[in-house]
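Form 12-C: Joint structure prediction
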Amino acid sequence: MALSAKEINETTRWQDITEGLQIYEPATSKEFMTGEWRTETPVVDWDKCRQCLLCVPYCPDSSIPVQEGKRLEFDYDHCKGCGICVAACPFGAISMKEGK
Amino acid sequence: MAVRKSLSGNEAVAYAMKQINPDVMPAFPITPSTELPQFVSSYIANGEMDTEFIPVESEHSAMSAAIGAEAAGARTMTATSSAGLALMWEMLYVAASNRLPIALALVNRALSGPLNINCEHSDSMGARDSGWIQIYAEDNQEAYDNFIQAYRIAEHKDVMLPIMICQDGFIISHGVSNIELLEDETVKAFVGAYHPKHYLLNADEPMAVGPYAVSCYGMEAKRAQAQGMMHAKQVILDVAEEFEKISGRKYGFYEGYQLEDAEYAIVAIGSACGTTKDAVDELRKAGKRVGLLKVRVFRPFPGKELADALKGCKAIAVMDRCESFSANGGPLAAELSAALFQAKSQAEVIKIVYGLNGRDYTVTEAKQLFADLEEIAANGRQETEEYRYIGLRE
Amino acid sequence: MRHLTEIRWHGRGGQGAKTAALLLADVAFGIGKHVQGFPEYGPERMGAPVTAYDRISDSEIRVHSNIYEPDFVAVVDDTLLHSVDVTAGLKKDGAILINTEMKKEEILPLLKGFEGAVFIIDARRVCMETLGKYFPNMPMLAALVRISRVMERDVFFREMESSLKHKFAKKPEVLEGNMQALYKAFEAVELVSRPAGRVSSMPSKDRGYRYTASLQSGQLARAAGMHA
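Section 2 - Result
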């Protein structure tokens, strides 16, 4: 009983899951690679990007990491490819390509 | 030392609430349970309790707030009746499936329509499959005693389920009669402090409550929840045994009254049992072998134990203060009939619906019912009869 | 052996019939009786007819039905006599108590030939003389205790005094008026009709109306001690 989130999977017996399927650790959504769902992928043209960071708050999956005031490459493990960042970018620096 | 008083059922349960002094009570008023939040509010205003009372805008909100508070780690209670319980419906399931041991004082009342404020068990019986433990009381004493036992059962680590402590609206809730109360210190020591293993406000263990589960997890979750209800059976008995030590009053899944050698038995829930006991006494004096089986615990349903208690009976009347509209009698009759069948009982069983919308149930009717049972045992039951009413004009 | 006294109260919403029933249960509890006091809820509105009940016994009370064959009936509002069958099921050797300003000749025809004892009290007069306000509860309670003899007069006054002292702890000035209402009501009860063929006379102040219980049947039979 009371396995950690990592240990619970589709083969876990009812005797071994937590009460009410509660999860006793933070940020377990990181373990869930939703990037796998993506059918289209955002790509940054770094020449056009002015680091205005407007795309960051728009991203519904928090998949645009920021470090020292600058955005980094997309977190493709979790980006679902929704394309909102493309619409949010005032400089046309992001475009979608087909596939992963 | 016990304290003798004369109190109504609501006053008695409110007194238990005061003695237990839980952390949080979100509640919304509805007749006939309104007095419970009212009394608790007065106790708080007078400095006799330090429960956080949350006035909410509906019963749905009351149960939602109770769920939030309990998940946060607070010992939580609420109270309601009838339509109030119906409005909690969605959240009743959420409380149970998230394994939150909330205590709810239910004052049983009919659901509409016709619009009616009086006693009936249709509210709690409708919620019988929501995953809550349900314990019923014959009188104010039992309502008080049951509430004091509630958290010990619900919060037990093998159970972790919400619990409904039911009493008959008006008949018990507003009727004043003698009662023996326990000392505050005795209750405090018995109920103990609440130390949940996991809770949202624990900064050292961030946690998630109420996650989405796809079909490959949901069935396992429900099976695990069912195990809590199965464990509740032993816990209910253990807690009752401990309670007897502090109170001298004995409780179990049921009470058998003159049942051991009874050939004809009435099975009922709640205040009707007291009335039936008087009928039993009168008929016993006349040499009739009659008895009563009072069902105290309906969830978990002690089917095997009830069937076993009835094994010497030739004819049994199972009474529901609730019309299931199943065209097949009420819920207690349906479940007990199934349990008797499993136990290979040969007894004749008649299903009775009585007391709807506060219709009175009398000693005379109980005696007539015993006479009917004797007749049925001798001549058999009408095969075409699914169930019958008593106290109905027809 | 079973000593059970069953009382039915008739009043109108807001007049305190339920409160009177609960008060009676409370004082009877105070002297060690087993009690039940409960209302029967109808429309739950001011002025609507209300019924309340008391059971007072020496042994545990388990029955939870209404009372259909009371030993005593108390009517808080005499206008109910026109609309409610107040003597329904009332035992022939029981008694009815009516709060009214009416005279014997006016009240008796309204009782549909009830053969038992009929008592009246003008609770309004008692209230106005003692409390200055009309709260029929207290006089009715005292009057009912006197005719039903569920407890001794002195015990009743002592119990009421201690319970009112507690209830009005913050308004001690109210105590005296209420106690006076009780004393006065005890004297103001009037027997206006008695069962035929029974010897009755007015009892002494100290002893109240006297009944002896017929123990086998639980019915109350009246001993000597009244006159109409």
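Section 3 - Comments
Chain A is about 10% helix and 15% strand. The interface with chain B takes residues 8, 10, 12-15, 17, 19-26, 28 of chain A (CB under 8 Å).
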